[in-house]
Amino acid sequence: MDNDTAGSGRERLVVIGGDAAGMSAASQARRLKDPGALEIVAFERGRFSSYSACGIPYWVGGDVPERDALVARTPEEHRARGIDLRTGTEVTEIDVARRRVRARDVDSGAESWTAYDKLVIATGARPVRPELPGMDAAGVHGVQTLDDGQALLDSLARTDGRRAVVVGAGYIGVEMAEALLKRGYEVTVVNRGGEPMATLDPDMGRLVHEAMTGLGITMVNDAEVSGLLTHEDGRVSAVVTEGARYPADVVVLGIGVRPQTSLAAAAGLPLGAHGGLLTDLAMRVRGHEDIWAGGDCVEVLDLVSGQERHIALGTHANKHGQVIGSNVGGDYATFPGVVGTAVSKVCDLEIARTGLREKDARRVGLRYETVTVESTNSAGYYPDAALMTVKMIAERRTGRLLGVQIVGREGAAKRVDVAAVALTARMTVEQMTALDLGYAPPFSPVWDPVLVAARKAAAKVRGS
């Protein structure tokens, strides 16, 4: 086993993880410090770097024509910019005391140690894969990396049948259901919750359920998967719940993800209640001066509830990387937290949320009022005006905005950005009613749906 030691009078930054957070950090640090002052070594166990994992369902569904369209910067491009990116290399151990990491070549199995002066952990998240019979069968796929997406497409090409079962109905589950539907599959979604999209309140999730059913997707709610059946050749044949069996030629797991922090845990680094690494505002791992972490492997501060959360989103990961790279490179930056904004779609149905759900507010001890309004995405008389439903949650007595959920057609999802800004500014719903939003009949009614909800919420708060 070789020992690679830092030296030559320059610092060495080691990055674990070659996607959004890791390579954003490496690239920003390189912009601030040239190779003569800072050596950068990055390890990535897969073949790809700096790609959009969020785009994988659209690549699988055919909206994105080719895999390489999702790659923002190739390993070769990173190397040309002075970053020693080693793909196909998995870090297997972090030795904090001796300031080094052990890495293994995925193909040859050869191992070596690499010393660091500064370390960035950007190991991402892993798809939840329950330990149930048949979960490792051929034709069962998690979708987290480009390699995962390629494996799924290869599997679809080898499959003669046209029956797909998606296990889970969160963001990945509903997006993969759409992708498989577009590929001509008969799609069944098996969901342990009462409604799809547990990131929404159940009344809003019901709207998603109805839309998915209308598209021809079979929704099975309140169903716990107990195992998978296989053919004699070992390929999956069905998904089994307590009361039913759903034939499947391919199975996609959309149950969610967990922080990939086994390396960090083994090294004794601090983890939060959700299993993610804990960092300070500069994204430095708490208690460790020269170790930073970012992306899907960390927990972040929820600015509305004041508690730590795990949210796996590329937007956060890229911001984390910019903050880390700035601090490693001698500049200064912080990441203050999030309000929990996310958008998605199923065919033409747009889904958005930001802030707290009702159960989130109850869990942290907030008392609240809710309103739900129906409006349209454009003036009612404008051609093709479509309905949208907006739910707003406000704190009782103070009227502080706590959360917004939106389900509708074109133009619905991005309206949540107005609410995200209001949450960040700690605005009340009364203050929101005076926001000077853009108006023209093709884009909005005279009173934008978000402002209609704010007016009703303000009136309800005054009444309480």
From TrEMBL:
Residues 344-446 form the Pyridine nucleotide-disulphide oxidoreductase dimerisation domain. Keywords: FAD, Flavoprotein, Oxidoreductase, Redox-active center. It comes from the Bacteria. It holds the Pfam family Pyr_redox_2. Residues 12-318 form the FAD/NAD(P)-binding domain. Transmembrane segments: none annotated. GO terms for molecular function: oxidoreductase activity. Its cofactor is FAD. Belongs to the class-III pyridine nucleotide-disulfide oxidoreductase family. This is FAD-dependent oxidoreductase. It comes from Streptomyces doudnae.
